[in-house]
Specification:
The chain is an alpha+beta fold and 426 residues long. The protein contains 15 helices and 24 strands. It starts with 8 loop residues before the first strand and ends with a helix. Bound molecules: adenosine monophosphate and glycine (GLY).
């Protein structure tokens, strides 16, 4: 592995489980970490400073005042809004794509047109800007298409309808009811793909790519992939679905043309490119979505399980000198514990018990997303509250540790899936 690098001062922008996992990893590797704004949970591992992700000028000032060597931007919104451009213009070394490159996530219409221009395998689609055009496009599909609000909609903008009536209702929600505001003013209708999904995350300096272990998210709320879509109820890595042969093929057929296409368009991508893939029965991969950042919860098992150091790679990518390759990891899994009412509503705050005992186990780490600490008591404040993460020699071992930790933690109304990783276990 790469030689140990001396202490790096890193500012991480964000406050969720993903940023907690990243901060923890950087601290474990011996670096000085500041998180803005962070959270009470993150504050147990790294210093948090109350600057919000939307306060770009204050983040530039913070990076300067703290003399940080590197800023890593966690969430998509500040990337789409140009935070990486702003930091680079101020001379701050930054990991995260420019606003122009982040449009791959910020505009699904942009991503579809990009893939068409560069011959990247994806589902057939049509982009519309009015209800009349949407209804006309709908009539052309032989089966109900997936309806996607083009802009950022906090993971709620995609409907996978079972009928044409449901597809029409989703179109009307976007283009007539404006339920996603500006994000739904442009809509992508997309052929529904069959198969199994996998998340391939690559660190890139714009030209070269380092793959992380492929991960599988569990988007539905309930066991057996039932119930509503969520931000993700758990994830594990490596996902055997994308074995090393398929991973290499996805690199050549999808990741490299994506990076080359972005360079050719004058918007090189420096950061973590997240490619959501659908693998069909024959093993062929097509792109379902691009994200311009680490996934959440995927980042948790990927970073907690990673063998070797991550920080030197983040630095190398930011500096344009990444050595391509693959960052292997131990088996790892995260089980999300969500609050009552999630994903539709946020339940009342509830006290959490058992956290310390659960966190004391070896090869277990609990990442916080929706918690608060008050007078020594942890509270679940809503949404995805905790990511209970564990690693092991094999996935079964990691899962047994994660579930054993989950069983020690309790708060009123908590929801967790019991079948994370079941597809990998066969
Ligand atoms: P997204 O919010 O873009 O991550 O999409 C949410 C989920 O919708 C994806 O993870 C898939 O499960 C599903 N989805 C999106 N596009 C398609 C498609 N073309 N075919 C089948 N499922 C899809
Ligand atoms: N877990 C999916 C995402 O981060 O978008």
């Amino acid at each position: 592995m790469s030689s140990r690098c001396s202490e790096v001062r890193i500012l991480i922008v964000g406050s969720g489980g993903r940023e907690h996992a990243l901060a923890y990893r950087c601290v474990v590797e011996g670096h000085h970490v500041i998180v803005a704004p962070g959270s009470d949970g993150i504050a147990a591992d790294a210093r948090c400073v109350a600057v919000q992700t939307s306060e770009h000028e204050r983040l530039v000032e913070l990076a300067r005042a703290e003399r940080v060597d590197l800023v890593v931007i966690g969430p998509e919104q500040p990337l789409v809004d140009g935070l990486a451009d702003r930091l680079r213009a101020a001379g701050v070394l930054t990991l995260g794509p420019s606003a122009a490159a982040a449009r791959l996530e910020g505009s699904k219409a942009d991503a579809k047109a990009f893939m068409a221009r560069h011959g990247i395998p994806t589902a057939a689609s049509q982009t519309v800007y009015s209800l009349a055009d949407g209804l006309a496009a709908l009539a052309v599909f032989s089966a109900p298409p997936v309806i996607k609000a083009s802009g950022l909609a906090a993971g709620k903008g995609v409907t996978v309808p079972e009928s044409f009536a449901e597809a029409e209702a989703a179109l009307r929600d976007c283009l007539e009811g404006h339920v996603f505001g500006e994000a739904g003013a442009t809509v992508v209708l997309e052929e529904r793909l069959d198969g199994e999904e996998v998340s391939l995350l690559v660190l890139t300096d714009g030209t070269r790519a380092l793959t992380f272990e492929p991960a599988q998210d569990h988007k539905r709320l309930l066991d057996g992939d039932l119930g509503p879509n969520t931000g993700g109820m758990g994830a594990y890595a490596p996902a055997p679905l994308l074995d090393s042969i398929r991973r290499e093929r996805a690199l050549v057929d999808i990741v490299e043309p994506t990076l080359a296409g972005l360079r050719a368009e004058g918007r090189p991508f420096v950061g973590v490119l997240f490619v959501g893939l659908m693998i069909d029965a024959g093993g062929a991969a097509r792109v379902i979505e691009y994200n311009c950042r680490l996934g959440d919860p995927e980042a948790q098992p990927i970073l907690y399980g990673a063998r070797g150091e991550v920080v030197p790679q983040l630095l190398a990518a930011s500096r344009g000198v990444l050595v391509p390759g693959h960052l292997a990891g131990r088996a790892a899994a995260t089980v999300v514990m969500a609050s009552s009412g999630y994903p539709r509503a946020s339940g009342a705050a509830a006290p959490i018990t058992g956290l310390d005992a659960a966190a004391a186990a070896e090869d277990v780490k609990i990442f916080h997303a929706g918690t608060r600490l008050r007078d020594g008591q942890w509270w679940a404040t809503g949404g995805r509250v905790l990511g209970v993460c564990a690693r092991g020699a094999r996935l079964e071992e990691a899962l047994a540790r994660a579930y054993s930790a989950c069983d020690q933690i309790s708060f009123t109304g908590s929801q967790a899936r019991r079948d994370i990783g079941v597809r990998a276990r066969g």
